[in-house]
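Quick review question:
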């Protein structure tokens, strides 16, 4: 017995040491992102090697700056303050809130946003630590999230995907979850894909209703008064086209590569319709599975629905994988996990957290090249995309299999059934 305790103590010491080392690495990389225009991660990603630091964050800063001066936040006009930016594509409430940031310099506001993301990551890690029942699994999950390459890219870009998904998941793991879920959907409305999971349990109806009301009350009146801006928002977010280039790491990008490689003309000719049907079918089928499955574990249902979104959305960039990592981490909080399920999730998290071979393939290091893949051998694009697409598919299939384990119930019993844990 004493020998077993000694061995367990040694393992705990080793794991604690590794986690401390990961934390040190994490702090070092984040410091590099904050202090250096070209941080240590720059060569690892398409976006960090070819796009200036904070470009996505400055889209929000620019929108807030415009709104303060009574200008359309979706306009692409120079404001004399924001150094560079991508077009603003979020709800107007984000631009309204961003006006507070414009009282700081763009760089200072960007650093403040990084600090906020770091604080949110800390809350997420602490919460996951308390919700994962196996100390070995939680150590691996926390360690991988600390050194997640997509998360560092998220910081570099000043993005919001990690924050939106983290808030969505924390909303069902912490008390007072309604404001967290509302903040998630206002930040990035795609988390409304989680709504079918809320329908299954009465205790979460308030989350869904309040989130929908927030979107309606804080967006519809604004767009009624500014219909042109409403059309821009809808076309940008719901009728996406293009973007199937080196920076795209989604399943849709993989399908396009396959269709192009094998010259599947009928798919390429009707691409938008094909993807539209695929998206509708996968989201609808996943929603039906969640609604009518006998096993209802919200820690699995929500990731399944959001993973269905990522698998079918055309504009999936590498930084989006920071959010997919969060979904994978939440999956291992599910009760009664089988070994294959835990192993599949941890394997997927490992692939997602690691950098792709981009830095090796992008040998020219010339940011003026608009499409680096044009200079690569035909197989190279698959080497970039597969390490992110394959684990996303594994996570999705694992979550669906878990949900379907106990079979299904009739539609009349979906709300009345007792929670399955």
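Suggested answer, residue by residue:
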């Amino acid at each position: 017995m004493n020998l077993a305790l000694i061995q367990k103590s040694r393992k705990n010491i080793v794991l604690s040491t590794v986690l401390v080392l990961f934390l040190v690495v994490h702090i070092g990389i984040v410091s590099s992102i904050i202090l250096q225009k070209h941080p240590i991660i720059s060569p690892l990603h398409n976006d960090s090697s070819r796009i200036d630091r904070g470009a996505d964050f400055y889209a929000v800063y620019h929108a807030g700056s415009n709104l303060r001066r009574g200008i359309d936040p979706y306009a692409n006009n120079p404001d004399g303050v924001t150094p560079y930016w991508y077009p603003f594509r979020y709800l107007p409430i984000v631009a309204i809130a961003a006006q507070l940031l414009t009282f700081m310099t763009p760089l200072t506001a960007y650093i403040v946003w990084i600090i906020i993301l770091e604080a949110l990551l800390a809350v997420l890690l602490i919460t996951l630590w308390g919700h994962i029942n196996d100390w070995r699994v939680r150590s691996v999950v926390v360690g991988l999230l600390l050194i997640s390459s997509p998360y560092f890219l998220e910081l570099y870009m000043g993005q919001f995907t990690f924050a939106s998904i983290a808030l969505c998941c924390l909303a069902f793991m912490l008390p007072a979850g309604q404001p967290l879920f509302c903040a998630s959907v206002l930040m990035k409305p795609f988390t409304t894909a989680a709504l079918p999971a809320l329908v299954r349990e009465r205790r979460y109806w308030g989350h869904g209703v309040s989130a929908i009301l927030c979107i309606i009350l804080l967006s519809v009146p604004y767009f009624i008064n500014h219909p042109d801006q409403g059309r821009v928002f809808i076309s940008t977010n719901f009728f996406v086209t293009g973007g199937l280039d080196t920076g795209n790491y989604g399943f849709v990008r993989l399908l396009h590569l396959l269709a192009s490689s094998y010259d599947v003309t009928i798919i390429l000719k009707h691409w938008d319709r094909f993807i539209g049907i695929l998206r509708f079918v996968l989201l609808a089928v996943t929603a039906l599975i969640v609604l009518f499955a006998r096993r209802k574990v919200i820690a699995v249902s929500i990731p399944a629905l959001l993973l269905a979104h990522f698998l079918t959305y055309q504009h999936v960039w590498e930084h989006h994988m920071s959010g997919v990592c969060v979904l994978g981490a939440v999956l291992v909080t599910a009760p009664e996990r089988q070994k294959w399920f835990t192993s599949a999730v941890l394997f997927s998290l490992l692939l997602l957290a690691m950098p792709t071979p981009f830095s090796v393939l992008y040998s020219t290091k010339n940011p003026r090249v608009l499409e680096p893949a044009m200079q690569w051998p035909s197989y190279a694009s698959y080497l970039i995309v597969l390490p992110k697409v394959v684990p996303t598919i594994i996570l999705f299939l694992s979550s669906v299999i878990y949900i379907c384990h106990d079979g299904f119930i009739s539609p009349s019993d979906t709300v009345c059934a007792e929670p399955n844990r």
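Why it works: Confidence is low (pLDDT under 50) at residues 416-421. The chain has one domain: 38-413.
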